[in-house]
Structure prediction request, 482 residues.
Amino acid sequence: MEITSLQNNKVKEWMKLSKKKYRDEMGLFIVEDEHLIEEANKKQLVQTLLVQKGYHHSFVGLPEIIVTDEIIKKLSSTVSTNHILAICKKPIQQIEPKRCILLDQVQDPGNVGTIIRTAYAFGFDTIILSKDCCDEYSSKVIRSTQGALFHINIIRDDLKEQIQSLQKRGIKVYGTSLQGAKELQSFPQESLVSFVLGNEGNGVSDEILSLCDDKIYIEMNRFESLNVAIAGGILAYYFRK
Amino acid sequence: MEITSLQNNKVKEWMKLSKKKYRDEMGLFIVEDEHLIEEANKKQLVQTLLVQKGYHHSFVGLPEIIVTDEIIKKLSSTVSTNHILAICKKPIQQIEPKRCILLDQVQDPGNVGTIIRTAYAFGFDTIILSKDCCDEYSSKVIRSTQGALFHINIIRDDLKEQIQSLQKRGIKVYGTSLQGAKELQSFPQESLVSFVLGNEGNGVSDEILSLCDDKIYIEMNRFESLNVAIAGGILAYYFRK
Prediction:
């Protein structure tokens, strides 16, 4: 199959995937880099490849549509040259979360993506995003995860319910806070823990902190705040499996 | 003094400050957020404030020029609304570096800025950038540092010379590497150390690694790579003062 017109109905549908609303409605998202498409393919998430006419790729046995350079450009989020894109289906999450990083209103796609990448590297199994976090299927998040997004369980839900559910199953949930918190080094380095990271400007909300088993403070040389992904990286390493 | 025209010569000069070349030539850079201007002012770096007509600010005793909304917009790097900008002079670096984070070809402004912010929080005194790192005075870097840029020593130089100079003064310099490196936990947690972080795609170059006293590997649950700022955060915390 070949599509050459930007006015084609399918192209118009795919263009909508730059918006969260339509990604949610259709359960689809776009993956842009060839190595990221490879990662998505390992999990059978690729629905259709869009391949620039004349471009040779190494994916075998996937449905593909030949498109023009212009269509690829229109569907790409970056100015860098793509020759191939993948329309992917969102995975169905079904494992029981044990080692989680919970995100309370984290807004920056680069931060969310980097936290997902880091969580995967240190053996966390689940990322739980509050409903007002930025969308994990935006192109910027996908790129920042370096593909880890496809290999980790992702839940978007009310954090209060998720915290209580973890606690009911005997898993400690820690909040991060600059006030009234204990130094990280005073916590046992056990692996069956979950922790909450907060909004870039305001940190973890008081309501969520009050539900946590304990509050962690990362010891610093001077009173400063850390970038949320950096705080997450230090905690994920500390509680690594 | 008041300037109302985009064609004004001063405005044209300031517009050039969006480019590294001119920032280097003039020794000036632009700071955009009010809380960042405050941080720059603590170090007497503000040369001139550009204030939107009718806007009231809290800076006292600084030279200022009243400008139009249009001029502020033209000089701003973001779409968010600024009412005040500061033309700042680059600081003169004069302390002897002891605890340094060295950056080998780190390209992403967000990464460089976050590393500077983290280094400051954990008591490092100097950031040494290889000549091909991205410019530390770009608006994106300044924003990511959250003002830490003005409180830490910054050197842009040949890394080889800088590593040798640190070593001559008895300071150990560690490289980060995924291959042939020792686990982080096997290093003593001493504070008089420096370490090198590498390019987003390629890591620290072999030439630089060969000069290092030792190579560090951050223990992970699976063979992955970490975002360079995350790796930096974990090391900076481990070797914190």
Q: What stands out?
A: Residues 109-121 of chain A form the longest helix (13 residues).
